[in-house]
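Entry for guanosine-5'-diphosphate complex. Fields follow.
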Amino acid sequence: MFDNLSDKLDKALHVLKGHGSITEVNVAETLKEVRRALLDADVNFKTAKEFTNTVKEKALGQNVLTTLQPGQLMVKLVKDELTELMGGETAGINLSGAPTVILMSGLQGSGKTTFSGKLANYLKTKKTKKPLLVACDIYRPAAINQLHVVGDQIGVEVYSEPENKNPVQIAQNAIAHAKQNGFNVVIVDTAGRLAIDEAMMTEIANVHKAINPQETLFVVDAMTGQDAVNTAKAFNDRLNFDGVVLTKLDGDTRGGAAISIKSVVDKPIKFIGTGEKMDAIDVFHPARMADRILG
Ligand code: GDP
């Protein structure tokens, strides 16, 4: 994973590792390579530039040039800064509320339905919760069926009203159903479109307003690179979501989305999806991700 970025950073930093003594020019040149590697991995320009400027300032501030192992110090600085850029600490999920209501948002194909199932499974097994999945896609009957299949796989009940064309009502009825039947987490899967669309945004904003969720998660396909950042921004402008789920990190994907999204929308990445199976879910660890990116 992230071989491109990691290899390039490795090469860039190798220049420093190999030098007994280095100059300010070496630092600048290495950081130029680091910046190029970040840009190649689809990190947006502003983020990459700010990143390298910060590392440079810190490097010079810590007298990296006069230390015995300047290369190692630089590697540490780059890693620490990359970790910070992705949020520093692991961000938790808010499980308050009776029941906790979690709203899933994102484009069609991002992995929303799959992730809804994974999250239900995760909460059930790791946090001993009793989740209810809710199918709120009123356009694609196949989407409702898909959630039922997922629910069957993990043994979690799925609430749906195939005849009802009002997603706000479905979500509200589902919460009432949860309260009456002892479910303490309600995960609402919503309709997505292939691209940002005003009708979809208005619909999910209405559902959001009506059910006032504890957590609104934005699901995005990590393979979509710079587009992931633009989509995140559009959804965040409407929903002011609480966290990001980065899916398909098992694929031949670039690391750019993970790095840029946090800095552009200033919301933490909370979970990652690493496969199609129901247990392919992980809490997002910024430091671990930085390690993986840098190799
Ligand atoms: P939705 O339209 O947003 O609900 O997206 P789906 O949940 O239907 O996912 C779209 C496709 O991506 C499906 O074929 C999923 O199996 C696949 N998918 C979802 N998450 C992951 C992931 O983390 N890794 C991989 N490799 N595939 C995923």
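NOTE: The chain has eleven helices and eight strands.
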